[in-house]
Amino acid sequence: MIIKNRELVVEPGRPFFNDELKRLESAEVLTQLVLSTQDPMVVCLDAPWGQGKTTFLRMWEQHLKDSAVPTIYFNAWENDFTDDALVSIIGEISSGIDELSTPEDISKTKEYLDKAKGFGVTLLKRTVPVAAKVATAGALDLDKVTEQALAGFAESIAKEELENYEKSKKTLSAFRDSLQELATSISSKEDPKPLVFIIDELDRCRPNFSIEVLEKAKHFFNVSNIVFVLGADKIQLGHSIKAVYGQDLNVNGYLRRFIDFDYLLPPPEKGLFVKALFKKFNFNIYFSKKTRRDSQYEGHQALEIFSEFFEIYNLTLREQEHCCSLLSLAIRTTPNEYPLYPLFLCYLIVLKVKEPDLYKSFVNEEMGPTELFEHLSSKSGSEALIENNYGTVLETYIMTCKSQSHDTDGVKEKYNAVTSSTTASDEQKARAQRILGLINKFDWDGGVGILGYLVNKIEIASRFSS
Questions:
Q1: With 90 as the cut, is the pLDDT of residue 340 above it?
Q2: How far apart are CA 312 and CA 386, in angstroms?
Q3: Torsion angle, alpha carbons of 455, 458, 463, 466, to 10
Q4: Residues 299, 206 share a domain
Q5: Start and end of every KAP NTPase domain (predicted)?
Q6: 3-state class of 226 per DSSP?
Q7: Tens digit of pLDDT for each residue in 284-339?
Q8: Can you tell me the distance from the alpha carbon of 55 to that of 93, in angstroms, rounded to the nearest whole number?
Q9: Which end of the chain is more exposed for a tag (fewer CB within 10 A), N or C?
């Protein structure tokens, strides 16, 4: 059994072989989109952080390459230490040219690349800002500077700025021309395809760098045969933009200036990813050894309850992986003959990962069992779980987890009141009777007062995982 999920392997020729989330269809849709035009295009692959964007983009990158589509992958977050996004983007193109070019075309491709680099360097050269030049006048004795001299000084600055603007405009045009030649040179002449430049993790960058990448991609690389694909959580990207331009900015209006199409990466079906995680963590090795009558179904219970709570608490894929990592470590401290109490253990793990403040309040006696169960009952989508058998067992664990063995009369009182009520429905009475039976069973086999036992496992696991 492993502790941490292994990094996914993307194999050339079958990049979606290990695709547990069934996202090949999305790759095919996006491939058709980028191949549908030779016009400049910027596409945003939108999904919340932790929902598998990077894994998908890596798979799709290889899928494009297998389809002879020239493709470059650029992790913006790993490169936001640079001062200029243009340097990073040109550098990434430069490093990927050898792989993209055929041996017979490599010399011509590098010629176009060198031209683009040359024009790019020119564009990077900063002219001394007007404000700085005007400030220089402050170093002079203004009492001795005539009004005519100051007027002449300002006129010379304006003339220089105008000349620089005209030069920059011509250089930008030449830069784009050389990029278009470069993109054409690395594509098949019989079946021309655009250069696809994937920019990932844009939402995790410094706000200034994120904005600069957007602006440079649109203004400098807006040429035929180049398609930019941005991997980002647009909500988080919006926070970065507002951090620079102010909280009142219309983020959607701003982004629409740079992004031509949005593609919302669909979330996986309920339980699909957790099944893949259980397989990758090799949980079956441990659970297959649980053969006693009262523990032989613990593996199924853990899988089912995680599937339910991952949906109810809206965990990202990364958070789901963290939960399975904690479960893996908790399992390593539990001998086969010891009970794991997976229904309650997995719920506590989900709270630890998704709602740590609530978890801490419950563990530290600031919140009682009744309040915790009310919290669960208030969550959207929890009704079906609470009403089924697992929900009944879980409620019993919650309500008795802080009790002492053979001292559960206070807990039973609530459910005895339901069974004798004249206003309770038959279903409510039956459920209360079922819980009373479970309390007696737990009191007999050690299921009462298990909070400390399970929390100890989680906290030990948390120290390892952090």
A1: yes
A2: 12
A3: -130
A4: no
A5: 27-296
A6: strand
A7: 999 998 888 878 899 999 999 999 999 999 999 999 999 999 999 999 888 888 89
A8: 21
A9: C
